[in-house]
Prior knowledge:
The protein is of the alpha/beta class. It has one domain: Alpha-Beta Barrel (TIM Barrel), CATH 3.20.20.70. It is 35% helix and 20% strand. It has an 8-stranded parallel beta barrel with strand order 3-4-7-8-9-10-15-16, surrounded by 8 helices. It is globular and about 55 Å long.
Amino acid sequence: MASLKTNLCGVEFRSPLVLASGVLGVTASSMINVINNGAGGVTMKSLGPEERKGHPCPTMLSFEGGFMNAVGLSNAGIDEGVNEIIEYRQRCKEPIIASIFAFKTGLFGELAQKISKVKPDLIEINISCPNVESEAGIPFAMDKEAAAQLTKLVKQKTDIPVIVKLSPNALNIGEIAKACEIAGADAINMGNTLGPGLIINPEAKKPVLSNKFGGVSGPGLFPIALKRIWDVYAAVRIPIIGTGGVTDGRDAIQMIMAGASLVGVGTAVLYGDISVFRKMNEEILEFMEKNNYKTIKDMVGVAHE
């Protein structure tokens, strides 16, 4: 009988589907609700050094190919995030991934040290947000030396496995992922939104988003995300979380076959509701049983063979 259980960095997940960062991962209650609806684990919305309001509305829009957002890394700050992890831990045993971001290199280490005290299962360093360049400059994820330096710094500050969240904008993604692996990364999240992109309201003669530009996600991103996962899998030996435009179980299977051990789900939640995790689990299991796959591991990277 097929099993959805899988493992990342020694952490066991009952399903390869995890809530992607930025979608419902704000409070312990909202994350537990996702778990209760079939997710194997959750990723918190990225936490910074202090509370951040993000960009003014409108911050998100839909278009034919998917979504564009310029939320701007709004969050309650690391201290409030720590409290939510504590509550989550008291009420739920399934894995939680803490995501952190900063605009200065040194702050990543401080955040990792602080979040480690409440022992999330994994720590994700978000170095790839594309819609805050006006404030933060070009994302660290676009430069392999910068990405490696950040990875090394964070690894010195925590004993918890570290995931580096990279950008689909990078064409040399294999080189960047390899540099992170050499620097000590335990896993790669491939990846974030694409862009920034632009949508203009012709009647208003101006961009729709208040920030003008935003990260592109949704089904239009999926084939690009899939290629980036393929490239990273070919370059490194550490596990991958595949993220970007997944809408159903078949999409998740493709990401696993391209090299992902876990699949981050955000788009499917935005298109439907959190019950989509149960539906996708059923679709994956049905495929596995029909095609004689016993475990998720049996499918990881098979498209490369």
